[in-house]
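**Sequence with structure:**
===
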Amino acid sequence: MELKVRYFNDPGESFFLFGPRGTGKSTWLNTQFKNALYIDLLSPQLFRLYSAKPERLTEYIDGNPDKNPIIIDEIQKVGSLLDVVHQILEEKRGKRFILTGSSSRKLKRTGVDLLAGRALLNTFHPFMASELGENFNLNDSLQLGMLPLVLNSQNPSEVLDAYVSLYLREEVQSEGFVRSVGSFARFLEAISFSHGGILNTSEAARECQVGRKTVEGYISILEDLLLSYTIPVFTKRAKRHLISHSKFYFFDAGVFRSLRPAGPLDSPHEADGRALEGLVLQHLKAWNAYSGNKNQLFFWRTKFGNEVDFVVYGPATIWAIEVKNSQSIRPKDLNGLRAFKEDYPKSIALLLYRGTERLKKGEILCMPCEEFLKGLKPGNDLLKNI
């Protein structure tokens, strides 16, 4: 696949760029900054050098005065470098830093303050459908996901299967995040059944034979490694009794499919439905991040079972989005959106499905999911073209 233009924009000052491995951070940086001073801490030699002597960074910068910005890849590997970066920024020497990372856990654990606001925090995401354009295929995306590392490879299925192993080996095991990698691997399989569902840590703990607190710690690791999201229930001015648990999603539909076991008793339709819902969420996450994080993402579910998959809420925005993995729309598919509209009359209700036609069912617009994903672009009103 040819190099694609990404929606992430250079903020024009020093910034952190966090994102899971394989999302294309390094490719984007190498394309944007030809005159940068580049330090890759995944290199064992550089890792040893800067771990032993972080102040070497100042010497290296002074020895290359014409190079700017300074890009430090995988900054969490040597968190002590941030003290040196902080000092250089304080001295106002006209240097700009771009600090990338695939995990914020080690930085948090060592008490690093992320430069006390002297560098912006940004996130990088898998491809969006509109970035791929004609190369986007919904069916393929539900199986392989949207990671550039996977889609740009000659053997995407094999690369995807190896992806989780890479994180287990290089992030979890090498950094000592968990005592038992085997228990964590069983947890990943067990928690895959919670993707797109209500998070039940007690049930997951029983499945992987560890304590509930251990599972909560594992989920925290996934979030810090940027491999998963939890979204809370929307409770603002609630008029009904709502559930209190969050919903859980892996950050990429392909990663979910790679982790989730399949057998003769499993329903392919159910797995496809969970993957589709996750694919919509990862697009909403990327759209919101690249648009300046102006909105918050929630879901809505009453104790009597009415549910809306996603609520997008912002200063002037309240959208309710339901996702259905079906070619047709049944009357009961609209129940959750109708209940939400009753409680929030100003909301815009949208049902995404696998059909090919736009339909208006009362106040609810039913739209092909593929069309929605292809039309979702940062900086635009989510429903501008609807």
Notes: The two ends are 30 Å apart (CA to CA). Residues 129-375 form one domain. The chain has two domains: 15-123, 129-375.
